[in-house]
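Notes from the 1:1 (GR / supervisor)

We went over the backlog. Supervisor wanted to see one worked example end to end before approving the batch request, so GR pasted a single chain during the call. The sequence is below; no edits were made to it. Supervisor asked that the structure be written out right there so they could see what the output format looks like.
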Amino acid sequence: MKKSHFPQINCLDGLRYQRAILVGCKEIISHEGKLNKINVFPIPDNDTGSNLKKTLMPIIEKYPLWQTGINISSRGIADIAIASALGYSGIIFSQFLSGFADGVKNHKKIFIENLPKAAVMAVSRAYDSLENPREGTILSVFKAWSDEVKNISSTTTDFVLLLKKSLERASSALAYTPYQLEILRKNKVVDAGGQAFIYFLEGVIRFIKKGKLHSLVSQKKQIHIKTKAADTIKKAQFCAECCVRRENLERQDLIKRLNSLGQDLIFYGSLNFAKIHINTNNPEEIFSCMAKFGNITSKKVLKFAPDLPSHEKRALTLVPDTTCDIPDEHIENNDIYFVPVKFQAMGKVFTDKVSIIPEEFYQILSLSPTLPKTSQPSLMDFTRIYEHLLVHYQSIISVQLSKKLSGTFQTALQAANNIDPRRITVIDGKNISVGLGLAVMEGIKAIKEGMDYEAVLKRVKRAVENTKIFIGIPTLKYLVKGGRVTKAKGFLARVLNINPILSINSEGELKPIGKTRGRKKLEQKVLDTALGKIKEVRVIHHGLNLPETSEEDVGFSMAVAHTNAPQLGNRVAEKIRETLGMKVAMVMNASPVLGAHAGPGAIGVAILKKI
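Structure output shown during the call:
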């Protein structure tokens, strides 16, 4: 009988587990580009590899931390992954690690007979992390691996043999994913998340064979990282909140100054406006600082006490992400805060409405040799803002970008479930930009009218279901670069001078609904398409100079978005006023998430039908 060249391992302690996780993470990260390339489900945004890298790199960067039992080591690793989890793949993988940690929480080291329970808990946690888990994804690969662990755990005491056999079963499950999901079969790829898990297992086996960790650790001497205990950190007693206005506001200088004066800054900025909320022991110092940057409005000083009685808290706040476009005046005096999305361009990471605003983004878009890559907020981003706001509010309604366009909704949902799902409700906004903005503005109005939590929630959900947006795209160049449209279709559109009109359907999916030949016809076609949707609500009298009418009178509201084309946006808004006799609710320079894919010169018209 041929002797195996793999060493036999009959137990797994904290150190071995940590090293196995490190090499597995490194293997995933080394295949970042390949994973991005095959990412077509649930959203074809080519970022599975990038999201997993951002999720897993902090584990590697903090090595070594635990020279202890697997119970402590596994929990520490899982907590790091959860804190940095990004995208569907990052959330699922971090929850898999967390479930495994729960499965071994009573053991300093484990043997084969302990592994099935931990594997089952890991897979169960991964499934539970998604609102609608789908087979044919990493979940199926996880499950196949777990099933094989259970099947052979009674036949061997060797972790190496078990790992090899379970890898074979998982690889077969990965190969089968295109038969479970049509989109994978159509694109002739396997599931990207499932492939990442296979890389993970292969890396672990390769490490066991070579027995070296050199590629993972720095050449510098490793230093054990020590963090200050939470109870030794002096907490601020108050929160200071206010807004400031000034033309061409110096946001970066303001942010830098505020961070030197307080803690946990929540910041939202535009070209001439900023809203801040910050922990401090000296609110007047914050207000004095703000006064140097512009005219202050909406000053508030709030107690910052985690045990603040419920009756001393405000009832409800809204928390959209920054893909939601609404005017500054609706942010200024209302209970609304934003979780910022991020994007990478020209070797830097930018935070929307914090380190960059739309006007600056489009300058970068014109200069960058590659398409800026958008990145949803991390689990930690949502967690930090939710936990902070729950000190001041009894409940949160969080309205996110369509889950068919981004994993932002899923990340927000996971954060809410981790913190307190009874106090945080996450809504799939099924829209973007001003389409999302119209729904959020309904929530703002409902809160100002004194409606209770259930009434506000109902009104926002109804607005989501009754909002449509129509977007005219001047070129497919950016959709092709972002992987949303094939190069062949982009080439054909350019040759034929075709400009598509897109809309978001009832499921939140972006779909083509029409086209024009040439950009000159595009804005009128978008407007005609939008007006056609509201004829059932009100008779349209073209060409008449009607007296101005409120949106309550006509039963709908409208909004206009443009991508760095203010003259175009204002022209379309004026045409709406002339045609309908009413002003639009807003004309906004669209968020970078829309602009990165639509490119400069796009126009969008959103309609909210009120019932």
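Supervisor's comment: The first strand starts at residue 12 and ends at 13.
Batch request approved.
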